[in-house]
């Protein structure tokens, strides 16, 4: 029988942890988010465009740490409970553009709908937020709180890690 060791951690970016790079086979990053997919809304009316951008920045920093911790051949699963593409599809776009050794892969079972394709101009057209290609959109799972599935809104993306560049 194979031995399996599971380490459940809650890591805050403010605290330095003594984890070596490539220490984990799998990382689940259930990132703090704007929670725009929850029903009922927990913080209705409290989000601003700037706070939404701040969530996305923080999530990128957490994703960067996840990439450092997972070893080649490993898996990163990224999830949020928001329907905001800036925290979902834009994070996937960032990950794939930044880390060429990551591959977005399909998930089983596939229950949710596809991700959002394209891009959006924001802040008086001073910033373009890029999302997914049609192929990539089919690999993620987006759950809409208004769908017939009767779920909260949330998002899941799964990445496989190839050999990392030094």
Automatic annotation (TrEMBL):
Positions that bind S-adenosyl-L-methionine: 30
Active site positions: 81 (nucleophile)
Positions of the SAM-dependent MTase RsmB/NOP-type domain: 1-162
Gene Ontology molecular function: RNA binding; RNA methyltransferase activity
Family: Belongs to the class I-like SAM-binding methyltransferase superfamily. RsmB/NOP family.
InterPro entries attached to this UniProt entry: MeTrfase_RsmB-F_NOP2_cat, MeTrfase_RsmB-F_NOP2_dom, RCMT, RsmB/NOL1/NOP2-like_CS, SAM-dependent_MTases_sf
GO biological-process terms attached to the record: RNA methylation
Descriptive protein name: SAM-dependent MTase RsmB/NOP-type domain-containing protein
A Pfam family hit: Methyltr_RsmB-F
Annotated organism of origin: Arundo donax
Keywords: Methyltransferase, RNA-binding, S-adenosyl-L-methionine, Transferase
